[in-house]
Design goal:
Elements lengths: L15 H14 L17 E6 L5 H12 L3 E6 L11 H9 L5 E6 L4 H8 L5 E7 L5 H15 L6 E5 L6 H12 L3 E5 L15 H6 E4 L2 H5 L4 E4 L17 H8 L3 H4 L7 E3 L12 H4 L6 H21 L6
Parallel strand pairs: 1-2, 1-3, 3-4, 5-6, 5-8, 6-7, 8-9
Helix pairs in contact: 1-5, 1-12, 2-12, 3-4, 5-6, 5-12
The structure holds N-carbamoyl-L-aspartate.
The site of N-carbamoyl-L-aspartate has 11 residues, from helix 2 and helix 6.
């Protein structure tokens, strides 16, 4: 029997049970990181194309490793080395890749909705996975973040999570808000007004209106938080516009996480960052390298969760444990 591929375009498409099933599935791959031989056979003979139109270190490498650890063939395409730089459209690129019969296409693009466009232009037999589309969503980042939080806190339900920084341009923030709200957390988004998108509380309708609170003072955002998630200012997304804050030093002084400001959070709060970090801007080196930071564990979870997402995408439903 041929299975039905499962796309992952947006956290908005998943319910809490589906999210938990992916996290449980990722838990099974986690110990593999410490094993000498990191290879399973479940996607042997399958092909995964990583189509990256935007720069990436963690996401692209971990998708490639995840595919390889499941024995799939992993092909990487970046915009600079492809015909995209010759003016080929996204849809034509997708159709041409389709003609080579891959099992999954992982796509990152600067336009929100790019993964959805590709979804609409390829055969249903190919699973489409969104690896970040503009300022819209980055679903696998939210899943690996949830896996990291679960590892440290046991349960996400009832946790107080604060997301600090450039919320306006962050697909990580949007996917995390949706994912964490579905899993029962309360979320504070904390930034100066100029880095807060209007209506961020409404992105998940009733659910997020109840669970998301906007805070414009760092100390209020951090107060008694269980999880502190810091974000980079994504200046590349608002180049040429009026400045959103006076300068990096000012932003760091008012919204930067330091040992002093971290003291407002719970004593056992964990510190997260999706990377790349701008040390000395949103986070001090002492905190980034300190005992409460789980930033590199997020990266390790990235491989395990992407293995789970790829298996689910290509083989269909998550096999029971
Ligand atoms: C983020 C992204 O690309 O959205 N990084 C990542 O995937 N780990 C965040 C960022 O670029 O700041």
């Amino acid at each position: 029997m041929r299975c039905v591929p499962r796309d992952l375009v947006s956290i908005a498409d998943l319910d809490a049970k589906e999210i938990e099933a992916i996290l449980d599935h990722g838990d099974r791959f986690w110990p593999m990181g410490d094993e000498p031989i990191k290879k399973l056979a479940s996607l042997r003979g399958r092909t995964v194309i990583n189509l990256f139109f935007e720069n990436s270190t963690r996401t692209r490498t971990s998708f490639e490793l995840a595919a390889k650890r499941l024995s799939a063939e992993a092909i990487n395409i970046t915009s600079s080395g492809s015909s995209i730089s010759k003016g080929e459209t996204l849809i034509d690129t997708a159709r041409n890749l389709m003609a080579m019969h891959p099992d999954a296409i992982v796509v990152r693009h600067k336009y929100g909705g790019a993964a959805e466009v590709i979804r609409g232009s390829v055969r249903p037999a190919v699973a489409i996975i969104n690896a970040g589309d503009g300022q819209h969503e980055h679903p696998t980042q939210a899943l690996l973040d949830a896996a990291t939080i679960r590892r440290h806190k046991g349960n996400i339900d009832g946790l107080e999570v604060v997301i600090v920084g450039d919320i306006a341009h962050s697909r990580v923030a949007r996917s995390n808000i949706l994912c964490l709200a579905k899993l029962g957390a309360r979320i504070r988004v904390c930034a100066p007004w100029t880095l807060l998108p209007r209506g961020i509380e409404d992105i998940g309708g009733e659910l997020t209106r109840e669970r998301v609170r906007v805070v414009t003072r760092l100390e209020d955002g951090l107060e008694n938080a269980d999880v502190v998630m810091m974000l980079r200012v994504q200046a590349e997304r608002f180049e040429g516009e009026a400045p959103r804050f006076p300068n990096a030093r000012e932003l760091s002084r008012t919204f930067g996480l330091s040992e002093r400001t971290l003291a407002y959070a719970k004593p056992d709060a964990i510190v997260m960052h999706p990377g790349p970090m701008n040390r000395g801007v949103e986070i001090s080196p002492q905190v980034a390298d300190g005992s409460r930071a789980v930033i590199l564990q997020q990266v390790s979870w990235g491989v395990a969760i992407r293995m789970a997402v790829l298996e689910r995408a290509v083989l269909g439903d998550v096999p029971p444990s």
